[in-house]
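User: I'm putting together notes for a lab meeting next week and I want to include a structural view of one of the chains we've been expressing. I don't have a solved structure, so I'd like a prediction I can at least talk through. The sequence is below, exactly as it appears in our construct file.
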Amino acid sequence: MRSDQERARKMRIGGYSYQEIHQTLGVPKSTLSSWFSGLLLSRSAQRRINQRVNQGLVNGLVRRNKLQTHLARRRARETRELSAGEVGKLSERELLLIGVALYWAEGYKKSVIKNGKERTFHAISFTNTDPAMVRLFVRFLTEIIHLPQSKIRFHVRLFPHINEDDALRYWLEASGLPEESALKPTVVTSVSSLRKRPFNRLPYGVVQIRACDTKNFYRIMGWIDGIKQFVTV
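Assistant: Thanks for the context. Below is the predicted structure for the 233-residue chain, given as C-alpha cells.
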C-alpha cells in the first residue's frame, strides 16, 4: 500500500473528511473516494465527519452571505453615486420648486386665528432636523424670494442632554446664517420622545427657520396651490 494511502486511511478512520485529507496530503478527493468506498467507520469517526461537513456548510453560508452583503452594498453605493451625478446644477426654477415642495411638506401653513378671526400677519416657518435640507431652504429664501439674511432667524429646540453651545454652532454652520440670526434656544422634554426614541437620535435638537414676511408667506402658499393644480386626487 502506498505510504500516502496508508496515511490517508488512518486519517479517514480517525474521522477526517475527504476535504481535510486532501488539504493535508494533496490526494484528489476522487482518489480518496475510490480508496475508501467500502471502508466502515466507527460511530465516533462518522460523527466527527458529519460535524465537520455541517460546519463546512455553515461556514459556506456565512461566506456567501458576507459576499452577498458586500455586493449589495457596492451596488447600492454605485447606484447612489450614479444618481447623484444625474442631478447636475440646480436651475433657478428647480430651486423654486424644491423650496416650495419642502415648505409644503415641512413648513407651517395654517392660518393664524385669534379671537375667531384670521390674522393678517403670517410668518414663514420651516422646521427640520436635516442640515442639508435646512441649508437648501435658506438658499430658497435668499436666492428665490430674495430675503436678506438679516430678516431670517433660526430657533433651536433642545432636549435636556444637548449642549446648547454645540447645537448653536452646528446650526449656524449648517444654515449658513450669521450669529445674529440665532434666537435663544428652548429646552423641551417630550414624553413621547423619551419613550420611543434613543436619547441621542437628535444630537443637535430641532431647528426652526423663521422669517416675518406675510407677503412672501402668501407667495409660497400660492406656489403650493399652483403645484396642487397638477395633482389628481
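A couple of points you could mention at the meeting. Strands lie at 113-114, 117-118, 124-128, 152-158, 186-187, 206-211. The radius of gyration is 34 Å.

User: Perfect, that's what I needed.
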